[in-house]
Amino acid sequence: MVKRFSAEDFTEMPWKNGGGVTTELFRLPDAQGGFLIRISRAKVEKDGPFSFFPGIDRKLLILQGEGCRLLFPNKEEILLQGRVLEFTGETPIDCRLIGGSLIDFNVMSARNYATAKVLITKNLTGAQFAYHTRSETLYQFENEEVKVDFPEDEHIGIWITKK
């Protein structure tokens, strides 16, 4: 079975740090009102710090825009389209935009619950989710044995492995 989520199913919410707004595409809630899995996209219009999410592992990629410089405590990363960056939600990170605003895509998983793998691909064998960037549609696959090929467009494939 395939579930399809589009704009009317998504929820906009302010960033935890108050610096912007996220469009939440999918959330698997936990018992305390937080989440175990969250898939979202956000328009980033200004430089600033990332929100603090203790116990959460994050995967981030750029959908639109020139990218950003991410300032970690001991290093700097340049994040451009086509690359997935992984980091923990506890890590203090400051974002500096390159050439203006951008739209990012974020997969967050509670470290004690699951791990997430995120790829930009046309073949989604075994994926639980696929995000089509052009139509802004998220697909959830109920059967982990599903084999999906998108011959015309690449999608963002998301594989969740429960611990």
TrEMBL record:
Pfam assignment, any one: HutD
This protein's superkingdom? Bacteria
CDD domains named in the record: cupin_HutD_N
Under the heading InterPro entries, the entry gives: RmlC-like_jellyroll, RmlC_Cupin_sf, Uncharacterised_HutD/Ves
Q: Which spans of this chain does the record mark as coiled coil?
A: none
Question: Which protein is depicted?
Answer: HutD family protein
Origin organism of this chain?
Answer: Peredibacter starrii
